[in-house]
Design a protein that fits this description.
four-stranded antiparallel β-sheet, two-stranded antiparallel ribbon, 6 strands, about 35% strand
């Protein structure tokens, strides 16, 4: 099993969720986060004062999938979240040692 963590632009969340549903993903965890990479933030004016926005709003998705679903999930995220501009995000894939469904006690892929 794999844990896929994706950091994407907030306005792409609904499109990514729909694409993940189409490839058979039944559940995701979503967290609103802030961060920066190569974008390095930007400068804005607010009530005549200039200030630097260092951390940009992003959305973090966490998806536990069976090994066989990994490539389909990655393809779904990259195809939909890609705008071609800096700041589109990143995808991290990690091995997932064990999953346990609390309600039923199921373990492994059955718990996903």
């Amino acid at each position: 099993m794999k844990m896929i963590t994706a950091i994407i632009k907030p306005f792409k969340l609904n499109d990514v969720r729909a694409a993940l549903s189409q490839v058979g993903v039944q559940g995701i965890s979503v967290t609103e986060v802030k961060g920066f990479g190569r974008q390095q933030g930007h400068t804005e004016l607010y009530r005549g004062a200039e200030y630097v926005v260092d951390f940009l709003p992003k959305v973090k998705l966490e998806i536990a999938v069976a090994d066989g679903q990994t490539d389909a999930v990655i393809d779904a995220i990259t195809s939909v979240a890609n705008t071609g501009k800096i700041g589109d995000g990143k995808i991290f894939v990690q091995n997932l040692e064990q999953v346990i469904r609390i309600r039923t006690g199921e373990t492994g892929e059955e718990a996903v």
